[in-house]
Structures
1.
Amino acid sequence: MPHPLDEALNRIACVGKGRDGDRRLAAMLHQDAAHFSGLSSRECERVRGEVLATFEGRDLPPEALRSIAEELRTSLSPVVLAGAARALAGAARPPADMRPLLEGARDRIAGRDEYVSLGNAAGAATGARTAGEELRDAILRFGEGPVRCCGGASAAAPRPDEPPLSLCAKSLRPVTVEDQSRERTSLVTLLRERASLLLFFYTRCMNPAKCSLAVGRLGALARHLAEGRTPDFNVLAVSYDPAYDRPERLLKYGLDRDFPFAPRARLMRCAAGWSRLRSALNLRVGYGPATVNDHARELFFVSPGLGARAVDPELLADASTAAAALRDFADAAPD
Amino acid sequence: MDSEEQRRQYLAQAKAAAAPTRAASVRDLAAYATAEAGDAARMCEAISALSLDKQNYQEAVRALLGIAAQPSLERDVRLAALQQLGVAEFHPKRFAEFHADYIELLRRLATDPDGKLREAALDRLTLKNDPEAQKLLEQTLRKERKAVVPHAVAVQFLARDNHGSALPLFRELAETGPRAVREQALQALASDSKSAGLFERIATDKDERPALREIAALNLSQAAPARFAKMARQVVLDQSDADRVRAAAASAIALSGSDAKRMLTPKFAKALDAAGAATQSRSLKSSLDRLRRAAAAKAEG
């Protein structure tokens, strides 16, 4: 019986050329895609690297560009970064705003560089080069001279092709959340109290640029809001890993990151109904045999009327900008 | 490697490090690497004394990579070079330019004809969750290839990655593997809530070895606290069970969270008094005493 990793890699090799093929490849990067299920994190990285490298010489649809930007911004994996570099190196007109992200990735990988052997479009492995070499080559394509950096946050949705969601109270009724102090409540009841910012994370995330940073930033936003300059919101983080992230772990995780625990600022897990919540928000998270194997950075604004909208997680980088964006979302959302 | 063996090795290394050694130059090492014969013990000492200061660093690391990779050199010399490369790695900025070649070297050594070199390489690779190392170890455990390290060591190394894919294999080995492998596999399953049934079965099976039952009880206290609380209460009060296992269960209750501590009622405290009076085992008395004090503190609180 073929190993699931080999099956996933074969699937990449079977993707045809053209616009449909490009879109299929972009969809293969979704962390909740079926071919990632049951793989280890390292195996997921291998698949992602190969998908990205397969874009070499193809057009890059907007969704693929967003995925590439996100990997360059956060990934620590040599194979993924090499794939991202290969995808851009083959692009006819590489977007200028990718250059600072490539440079950031090159600097980040410097102390953990490895030789990476990536397949070409036909599936045969080409000669091994290091991820650093791939990134440097991709940067060279931009030529000399400064490039205006726009690697920062935008208030735009990270998934603009997906419409805002209208969460169904009836289907989410079984969802019970438990916070770091063991207090349990219905998620729907909590969300209906006031506008909420909902971040997803898990305590065993190995990438400090993802969950740890996001929770730290969320805490900074909660402190900013507590100073009373903006209407109140729930600032909530929900674990992707409810079986492991029990209250005592949530508490320690938050304390280690100065999270200002309060009735409106909590770290939580789903005590019941996690699969419903995951499905309702189309969360981009995959699972291996032990725990999460990969996930996107995911942040949602949810109105008291249960309208949900995905938000760029980079928004959390500046607490006052995030607070202003929250106010705008709250004003615009129907109750 | 067990903890006693690790302690012996560490003390031997510390003693060797304390002994005065002639400082080695890279030239000495390069000469040894190309010589037909050499004094291996002296070269090992020289490698350990090799200067890794800023001036010598690049040249030293290149020499060490060359020595570790050289199949014609003595194993202990190559191991000493690997050890010193580990020291060099503690300068991450300086080591950065060598990191890719170092990983490549370790991956080659993972299938070296010499077992100790293989183990040293896989030890270092699995600390980085290297996927190629993990593949070799899983193939070893599934008997799809000749073992690269003993099976118990393979489990220990694979268990380092808590995002790995070996959990189903560990569950299998925890039930059916040979003795040392079962123990390592059970430890590897520590935070696996899906193995709660397995933990409970082993922890309550009086025919199982006490060491295995202790690990299972501790795992259950983390994976399924409510289930553990019920099981542990029965084990602690069961005078026909092994003292060592009862002591471990009592300690685990004392250290665990609120699910277990909820059972620390006055009635249970009284039962603990009776259990303590009935046993001759000092460690069991001590664990029961600790638990009694926790129950008393809860009653007062």
2.
Amino acid sequence: MVSSSPLGANCLSADICAPLAHKKINLTFFTHLSGDRQVICTASEMGEAAFTQVKSRAAPGSELHLQRGTAVIAVYPHDKRPEILGTFIRSLAQARVILHGLAYSPSAITVVLSSRRVKAVVQQLFEHFYFPAFASPEEFFGAQPPPAELVQQVVATYQEKVIKVYWILPQPDLDLWGAKVSSTAILEGFANALIDLGELGLKIPFLVASPGLGGKDFLLSFSTSKAASQGDQGPEVRRILQAHLPDIRPMRLAPVAGIFLHGPHFGDRYGVVYTFLQALGRARVSLLALSCTVSSISAVLKQQELKAAMRILEETFEAPRSMAGPRPRKPTFVP
Amino acid sequence: MSAKYVLIVDDDPDLVETVSMILESKGYEVGKAYDGIEGEAAVKKRRPDVLVLDVMMPRKNGYQLCKELKADQATKSIPVVLLTAVGEAVPTTTYSHAEGMAVEAEDFIPKPVDAATLVEAVERLL
């Protein structure tokens, strides 16, 4: 589903995540860009139910589109290197893919695409990348278990009242870049820009690309981080983006901070991002961008709100003691 | 003296990333693999000083890999830390602690894994 709301009209937690969590609908992929746009993926048998729930809460002027028959492909690790993302996007371009969503977790790049293009994409990925675990696309497809088997392996293990996570990791001193890019430019142009950005030595710890409802444009949001020894590379980043995407008007916000929350099988559990958003709402933290994919939640917020965000998240989730604050005070969403 | 080499085998790439960061920050060299078959190949390619092994993985699970390594003279002395998210007896899964206890791993750490506990477990085995 792609959802777009008038600025300020959408309450992400209440209007989208709450009804899906209460109906026990797992979000296999979820991205949000502040004030505007979400991409929501669920298992195919839950698609209609999810669409109905979100539609029932949509504000006047909102738009919602259900795209059936999609699949999610993730490759890892990306080491936060822009040239890896650029090569990945180039593979998608050569497979003639229409992107329905693109997002990062701390180590994986995830794309939402039509199920019919999966084989073509995997073929291209094997042309551009070396996968030590599989010698060929055929071997890769042969090794995939049926989805039901995967769900059976994890479903009963995580029923705790306070959600346990592996880590809550902050990363301050990031730049956040945002731009609207035409659908034709997103693949080749952005891929080439990323490969050039790799030569600057920048890292990209966060990225979301959300399609517009008409399919004509994408909203891009990504953050860059640099080594302490490097000066401000913002002008160079802007130059590279505009060299490959001449019509782009990139927006830069700095400094911002990332928070990366990682937990057991987040990709197979409902209610986790709802709990996350509720917590940030209680602390009055404004989310600039959000990516939920693989087993992680990655969020970008204003740097001055980082402390408040970390405190509330450490109170809400049970994090390992070496990285946690006070023990959780109140139960969170209980299925 | 060269750094000790720890191999992490887990199908969760974000967990591998974070565990690697923690161990590298403690001065260890870290190798990564994302399922049991890849892990087996990585062990054969370069013998780790400690193997950190997830239980529930595709293609070959951690119990199976650990059993095979312990049954092989060439690899039986590699210390293994199993990361397990499995409760005592979870009826909907095919794993159990009882099976785990039979595989002769040197240590078991329950998930979500605590960074300090993991580092202690690795250092105890070196």
